[in-house]
Specification:
Helix content: 25-40%
Distance between the termini: 60 Å
CATH class of the largest domain: Alpha Beta
CATH topology of the largest domain: FAD/NAD(P)-binding domain
Bound molecules: flavin-adenine dinucleotide
Number of strands: 17
Strand content: 15-25%
Amino acid sequence: MTKHRMYDLIGIGIGPFNLGLAALIEEQPTLTSIFFDKEEGFNWHPGMLIEQSDLQVPFIADLVTFADPTNKYSFLNYVHKQNRLFQFFFYRRFDIPRREYNLYAKWVSANLMNCQFQSEVVAVSYKGDMYEVRVRETATKKVSTYFAKHIVVGTGSVPFIPDNIEKSEHVVHTSNYLHAAKDIKASSSIIVVGSGQSAAEVFYELLEDQKHHKYSLTWYTRSPIFSQLESAKLGQEVFSPDYVHYFHGLSYEKRKEALERLDSVRNGVDKETLMKIYDLLYNRSVEGRDKKITIQPLTEMNSVKVENNCLSVSCKQWEKEKKFTVQAEKVVLATGYKPHIPEWIWSNKDDIVWESEKEFKVDEKFRLVWKEERQNQMYISTNLEHSHGTAATNLSLAVMRNQTIINDVAGREVYPIQKDTIFQQLMPDA
Ligand SMILES: Cc1cc2nc3c(=O)[nH]c(=O)nc-3n(C[C@H](O)[C@H](O)[C@H](O)COP(=O)(O)OP(=O)(O)OC[C@H]3O[C@@H](n4cnc5c(N)ncnc54)[C@H](O)[C@@H]3O)c2cc1C
């Protein structure tokens, strides 16, 4: 077992959230840091890097720009280094392809000295004045021990698969869609379940490619309508530091109520994807309705069972309370994700302050709240919706979070947080 020196900050997971943190902290010569990820290298939701799908935030929400537009890891610098700045200029768009965002982030991670892949954090324990972090190399299984004054947990999310779905190679979560797409398209019948952005993107991709294949295509969702994600500019101001500050100051009950009321900015499909789907359906229908396409809202999927190498899918049209069962060769689950909270956090359960059974208390500076106050912080960037609102999983606000964490670790304002960032006011003038 190798022993390493002490770091100011150890990051666990290198998704976009911690990658941005690694890029910003690297600029600070007085702060030492190292970030670990169990994967081979950076790869952002590879199963959903569908061609023509765009990042759902403007490119300015890259890994560093909101903290420091002059940082060398900005998206604009990446495009410049790729000799694509003119094409990007003529492209005249703020929303970039998701595949390009992934390549940009890969470029950042490859240039950072403080990111170490193929390294799974298997245990974290608090030693009273520091954290001990045990890291297993995925190739050799060798375990090394590292120490840090503070740690930041950026372990992201994992696919959510509802109960009553029998495990089968024929049932694919959207997180794995592209890896399984060839196999899915070779089948005779496909059901897509869900109504969010991922469901719509997968449905559109399958709809477009249907002309080259023989499959029937069905889209079920429990939602009463296929609704559009609210994108009005004033409404978007909930994704601002000011709103996060306001939201965090509410009581737990008020925050939960507010989240429900903010459903239109949290759930739904972007306008462009919905328009592309409708236009394609319209074009296909000029010579008559295609019987091989079914789109049905108000429908919940209750179970999926494997029978004779086929899937038996039991559903209910809940408004009319009509149960029915359909057969399909493939089911694509667009059932979303849930926060990935590592086991070693659960094992400290009794020392943490909880707001509900699964929602830990996190202070405004993204520090997990312990029953006994600690000098050494455990910062968290996952499972934050209940404490920091709908912007918790948004890439643009991730930079503000990272600025806050660095300022707190440094004990001074390294990256000033912008204030008065929106045109609305959330409280009357005193
Ligand atoms: C398909 C999809 C598209 C999205 N598109 C957008 C968008 O356009 N705009 C937007 O604002 N938001 C988007 N989001 C939401 C959010 O921005 C992303 O989920 C983002 O990836 C979250 O980043 P993260 O760093 O928290 O986690 P992740 O990207 O999930 O990364 C977590 C990392 O932690 C690693 N890890 C976990 N446990 C360990 C361990 N024990 N040891 C070492 N490593 C570990 C994993 O290997 C992984 O690499 C999207 C989400 C999804 C699922």
